Amino acid sequence: MSAENTLPILILAPLIFGGISLLLRSARGALRFCAAGTLATAALAGITAYNVLRGGPAETANGWLMLDALSAQHLLAMITVFCLSSLYALIYFREEAADGRLTPKMAGRYGGLWFGSLAAMMLVLVSNSLGMMWVGVEASTLMTAFLICIHASPGALEAMWKYLLMCSVGVAVAFTGILLVAAATGPAGLHGMDALLWTTLMEAASRLNPMMLKAGFIFIVIGYGTKAGLAPLHNWLPDAHSQAPAPVSAVFSGFLLNAALYCILRCLPLVEAATGNEGWGRSILVIFGLLSILVAAAFIVMQRDVKRLLAYSSVEHIGIMALGAGIGGAGAAAALFHLINHSICKPIAFFCAGRIGQIYGTHDLPGLTMIIRRAPVWGAGLIISLLALVGVAPFSVFLSEFLVLKAAVDHSLYVVAALFLLGLGVVFIAVLRHIIAMAWKPAEQQAGPVKFSLPEALLIFIPLAIVLLLGMWIPGPLLKILSRAAQVLGGLS
Amino acid sequence: MNTLSILNLLAGLILAPLLPGIINRTKAVFAGRHGQPVLQTYFDIFKLLRKGAVYSRTTSWVFRLSPVIGLAAVIAAMTLLPALSAPAPVSFAGDLILFAYCFGLLRFFLVAAALDTGSAFEGMGASREVQFSALAEPALLLGLAALARATGSLSLTGIFSASAGPSAGPALALVSAALFIVFLAENARIPVDDPNTHLELTMIHEVMVLDYSGPDFAIILYTSSLKMWALGALLVNVLFSFLPLHGPAAVACVAGSMILLSVLVGIVESIMARLSLLKVPQLLAGAVAISVLALTLVLRFTS
Amino acid sequence: MIILLDTLLVTLILTGFLLLGSSRLGASIRISALQGIMTGLLPLALEHGDLFSYVSLLGVAVIGLKGYVFPRLLFSALRESDTSREVQPFVGYMASLFFGILFLMGSFWLDTRLNLPVHSGSDLLVPVAFSLMSCGLFLIVARRTAMSQVIGYLVLENGIYCFGLAVVSGMPLLLELGVLMDIFVAVFVMGIAIYHINREFDHIDADRLSALKG
Questions:
Q1: Which of A242, B226, B240, C91 could covalently link to B74 via disulfide, CB atoms 3.0 to 4.6 Å apart?
Q2: Prior bond of A14 cis (ω within 30°)
Q3: Is the dihedral of CA B107, B112, B115, B118 positive or negative?
């Protein structure tokens, strides 16, 4: 099965699964089908990605679908997040499905929307046309909006409305940017369909109108940046990620933000090539990245809700990825490595936070105390993942942040490096304060420890072990994948 | 200052009081009544001229002077008005600004006289009148500016003797729409003000002239008719500027169109209700927006 | 044809002003439907060479969706929510109209500065597009009810559509239809969201949805 043939199936299969899950009769059955369908799609996607990373970029459907090293790497991150989250959903919704709070109809809708967002994000990754990428991002906005308010509580509805409106407006602004990019192809003589195919645009990059391309890039960064959570357009993020159920929050933070950032990263080599590689596009990403890190740090200091804390941490990490991509070269490879680390670590953190919220009945940080004693697996998982996320060595997040910092210093961007360190430091101190309180502050009521099962422990600790391992040793194949993907970012394919 | 322009001016001076009569007749026809005679305003003016005037003890010379100054201002405005390609008696570069500010002078003295009476009702009417005019004046001036820019001339006679270019089509339509709203506002017609209302709390223009009697009131009535003629003639000139008429035909065309305009105003008055006082500024702001749009279009495409 | 095009574009700007000054939600929905129909007529007024099928299919789709389907969706959401008037907005109607005038002047100025190579039709397309986009964004930001925000989104999309018509010579039909479908689903989803919000909160005042802070 060559990569070319599987690309259309990657989009169609989740759609079919989604349709089927709408017809299922029981809540538990729907959740199990979700997990099964996600794993099946993930297997297919994994094989395709492997083929592409082995053999080179694959193009099909008249050039409309394409998978190269950058999108293959993102694809691997996406299927990791989705698989973990769909397995976790079985645990998270178990009680609710049992006592009927999650009705079969709600679960069927959940499954349909789950697969719908999977298909939409898949469309973003495998499209060669900037327009189809846009359709995928907008579709993912619409599908995930109702995932937020599966349980229609006031907070969830408010979060959903803010998310829907802000991201729709942002994506509309991004569309203006895409129109400007299409208009910039005038001097190059591209017409019709060709005008938006990424591969064609890269080939004709030197002949594009630089002014219009620059204007289009700004619109694209602002538009997709709203969806990716770059400050100052991130206002919807804490609400949406904290009000959604934990598996959905994990998908949001783990991959949805990255999908939007991916669209910006696709346009980056285009702008760079068209403006003569003087670093204009990259400096814009650096500015937004630094701003996100600093704003997130400022807001993390005063957080009282554990899921909002994790949401702001996502803003920070997206900022780090944008910063790394903006620095370029080794920084871009470090940013992509950071993507993988974040996509493994953040969902685990959300899983633990969600389960602990169910056990304790609240997400408020002052109320979450002695969590390791009360819930060994989830408490320990939360502590360890939070430690990993703020960059404690020897976890891989520390390594990737260090590599970004090193790239900044290597490129003599000392102010950038200093501000980056400042942001990281503030986040470290603020989160550590909460971690210590959660783990060791004495609890008012002593409730007994919650039972856990082996699959739960495996679900949490295997990914954390991988994160620990990656911090100490990056396997050769992974290095090759990262360098090939970074090359695409740098303009060579 | 030739015979054609004098004819133009005389037509306005003589025919102006016909307009309120036609408006009232149209409204009566709509309401199924027979209504007043069309020449009623003439009869009213002559009746009032024969009567004596009564002056309140709180008023001063301002009160007595204001009707006369108002009449003089409006007649001055009318001497600046052409009739399509027939020139006005007086014309010079920049006379369209003088045209707008003659009405300003009229308004100032009317308001001063109203305040002079020391009565609360007149003061209330004065404040409303000034508020609405503050919004209607920019609409008028911006519309005139658009016309000036489109034809390249700063004199009313010059604007309407040349023909505005074909690309000014939408701009001319927009200017006429804005001028129509200004016409309704300045002449105290529905939907801005109800000329038939007798409830003091809802009057605007009527209440300012509540204290006048005898010859003074006759002058006020005549001034209102002339004001209606002046603004209406401006509107009609804009609407029919594309017609290649000359000489007495142009004057006749303008006079005839004024009658049609009065019928139109009568119809508008019959089918609409007065807007609430909070909404009138929005309507006038809309007129300003339309004028700005017209000016922008003209600036963009005739540069 | 140029007269028709210019008239359509000027009427589009006027509908933008009307929306800025209107406080009745039902009237706003109708005016935005009218705006949608006029944007659907725009490709017909622009000269496109051999694209008869393109023009007719796209035009029919746009007019059908924006002129009929969207108003139905929005009116049913409005009926459910039992409101008919805009709650006191953040920016009053007079100030909104003056902002609209500022946006208009800004759009024309921006157009002269940007000097975009316009492929088709009149010089008015790009300023009208910018003006509609800024009116739409203003409506989203300055109005309180969720319904007005959806109408603002529709106006924004109309503006972007005009912009696309101006600068791109011949977008692929498939892409345009894809965009149209996305907008349709977006409005559909927003309508359902408003229904849920009203059921839970008993109002559609988006400003009162402010429990989540920090």
A1: B226
A2: no
A3: negative
Please state the domain extents for chain B.
3-301
pTM of the model as a whole:
0.86
Judged by DSSP in three states, C85 sits in: strand
Establish if A318 belongs to a structural domain: no
Select the residue from C12, C18, C97, C138 to test the B interface by mutation, using most B Cβ atoms within 10 A.
Answer: C97
Structure tokens given for A359: 């056990």
A52 touches A58 (CB < 8 A) = yes
Residue A470 falls inside a structural domain: no
Backbone angles phi, psi at B39, to 5 degrees: -90, 15
Q: Do chains C and A touch (3 or more CB pairs under 8 A)?
A: yes
Encoded tokens for A204: 């004709």
Domain count, chain C: 1
Inter-chain residue contact C105 with B281, CB threshold 8 Å? no
**Looking at chain A from residue 219 to 248, which residues have their Cβ under 8 Å from any Cβ of chain C?**
238-239, 242-243
With respect to residue C102, please indicate whether it lies within any of the assigned structural domains: yes
Q: Along the 493 residues of chain A, how does pLDDT read in single tens digits?
A: 566 778 888 888 888 888 888 888 888 888 888 899 999 999 988 888 888 888 778 777 777 888 888 898 999 999 999 999 999 988 888 877 777 777 888 888 889 999 999 999 999 999 888 888 998 998 899 889 888 888 878 888 888 888 998 999 999 999 989 888 888 887 776 666 667 888 888 888 888 888 888 888 999 999 999 999 998 888 899 988 888 889 999 999 989 999 999 999 999 988 888 887 788 888 999 999 999 999 999 999 988 889 999 999 999 999 999 999 998 888 899 999 999 999 999 999 999 999 888 888 888 888 787 777 778 888 888 999 999 999 888 899 999 999 999 999 988 889 999 999 999 999 999 999 888 888 887 776 667 777 778 888 888 888 889 888 888 888 888 888 888 888 888 865 4
A11 lies in some domain: yes
Asked if A160's CB is within 8 angstroms of C193's CB, the reply is: yes
Bridge partners (DSSP) of residue C205 are C145
Distance from C-alpha of A481 to C-alpha of B164, rounded to nearest angstrom: 69
Q: Burial of B273 by CB count in 10 Å (0-12 exposed, 13-18 middle, 19+ buried)?
A: exposed
Length of chain A (residues) = 493
User: Is C119 within a domain?
Assistant: yes
Structural domain containing residue A73 = 1-128
Distance CA A270, CA A217 (A): 9
- How many domains, chain A? 1
